[in-house]
Design goal:
The protein is α+β, with helices and mostly antiparallel strands. Helix content is about 35%, strand content about 20%. It contains three helices and four strands. Helix 1 runs parallel beside helix 3. The chain is globular and about 35 Å long.
Length: about 90
């Protein structure tokens, strides 16, 4: 596999969709920057500016923004784009 992807995740501290994104990254052993959009209004504003919309979670992988996604959508995108290889759990 190529070098580790650069991942920035705009997530809520407590949220089922945000939790599923964190679980997906854990499944693949991926390091990522977890940005709290609830307790930091400036981070929420950054997410809206970068994604073009107000819904979360938003995940940026190697400069590609995935807006309003859950863990399954993030996983499918990473597999389709060669960011990760399939793993069995």
């Amino acid at each position: 596999m190529a070098e580790s992807p650069h991942i920035v995740a705009y997530l809520k501290p407590v949220c089922g969709w945000s939790y599923s994104v964190r679980e997906t990254f854990a499944k693949y052993g991926l390091a990522y920057e977890d940005k709290d959009i609830i307790n930091h209004p400036e981070i929420y504003a950054e997410m809206v500016q970068k994604s073009g919309q107000p819904l979360s979670p938003c995940v940026e992988i190697n400069g590609q923004m995935l807006a309003d996604v859950d863990g399954g959508e993030v996983e499918a995108w990473m597999l389709a784009n060669g960011v990760v290889e399939p793993v069995s759990v």
